[in-house]
Amino acid sequence: MMAAIDGNTPLCTGIGVVAPTGIGVESHWQAILGGKTGIDRISRFDPAAYPVKLSGQVRDFVAKGRVPGRLIPQTDHWTHMALRATELALSDAAVNPASLPEYEMAVVTSSSSGGTEFGQHEMTRLYQHGPSWVSAYQSIAWFYAATTGQVSIRNGMRGPCGVVCAEQAGGLAALGQARRLVRSGESRLVVSGGTDAALCPYGLTAQLASGSLSTVDDPETAYLPFDQDAAGFLPGEGGAILILEDAGRIGERAQQDAYGVILGHATGFDPRPESARAPALRATLARALDDARVDAADVDVVFADAMGVPELDIVEAQAIGAVFGENAVPVTAPKTLTGRLYGGGASLDVATALLSLRHGVVPHTVGPRRLAAGCPIDLVTGQPRELDLRTAVVLSRGYGGFNAALVLRRSRN
């Protein structure tokens, strides 16, 4: 059963991408379809002393001229990318915030690391020169809510604003909260999604603590989710910002131009490993479908979390197989071209899923060639697969047990 598009239905009307695969929707989409990787040796600093030397970097991004000059020294690279992505998303949606009631516009983003690089620079100044050298903006630039605050201030959005800190799963949780704001009638427009940027010595060191990063030096084989040779994942930076609007207040033309509808959402958290209880992802996926009032048979594609850690890949593949049937639905993980973007990763997957629904194409997963035992999924590899796509599911998990699922439907019949 499908929900109708009516008042308080949260439509995605705009997408802004700043990612290793490109800046802007079209650049990103063409890179995804062409299997053009954004993975390369880390260049933001010399990674020679670190076991992980590869990442997905946004190589063409320049804050100057794209971010207000006064904000550049006051905020982190992570916020710079989000401000640019928001600008692109608003333009894509043909929205002028100045024309809308300020208290009916909201901002909800996700963040995993906050302003890591800014914080590292200021701590270096502290230890090398003393407290008088530390920027007065250190107290706000590193803060998880800095991006939400700056987007809100810059665009005059004074409705409910917040930030979700749930690592990679936070991108879906933020969009879930944005959906609730629209459905409740509290907000007519919500800026949501997220970016992240932890490619600095301090940030990479913190990531190494998980033990899940790949130390393989070959960009073609370093990140191989669901593969027999999976050895962990690669980090990345960037993400996507999406504009959600109330379908009842944007007009028929805007409805037709929209990318799609957020039909359902659910979150969960894994039990303690010693509890012997099952991981939560299967139940989270099932609850998201229930929330969307969608049967498993109605789902046309799944965008996997794709951790690249063998035991976690099996957990995800078996959850997908249990809900949809073994090899019953195409599964894809375009994030092998970007690395895992933490607070920005899930929203970028949602952006890619919406583009897939619009164009009727399932992007292929670049890298994996030999499916691991215990992964009963139809992983799309080799080349994109053209299909009549109507409904997609996006899955995401974060370090420590966070997990989330989002159900999307294309808005065009």
TrEMBL record:
Pfam families: ketoacyl-synt (PF00109), Ketoacyl-synt_C (PF02801)
Keywords, sorted A to Z: Acyltransferase, Transferase
Gene3D superfamilies attached to this UniProt entry: 3.40.47.10
CDD domains in the record: CLF
Ketosynthase family 3 (KS3) domain span: 7-410
GO biological process per UniProt: fatty acid biosynthetic process
Keyword hit for Transferase: yes
GO MF term set: 3-oxoacyl-[acyl-carrier-protein] synthase activity
Domain of life from the UniProt record: Bacteria
InterPro entries listed in its UniProt record: Beta-ketoacyl_synthase, Ketoacyl_synth_C, Ketoacyl_synth_N, PKS_Beta-ketoAc_synthase_dom, Thiolase-like
Family: Belongs to the thiolase-like superfamily. Beta-ketoacyl-ACP synthases family.
Protein's recorded name: Act minimal PKS chain-length factor (CLF/KS beta)
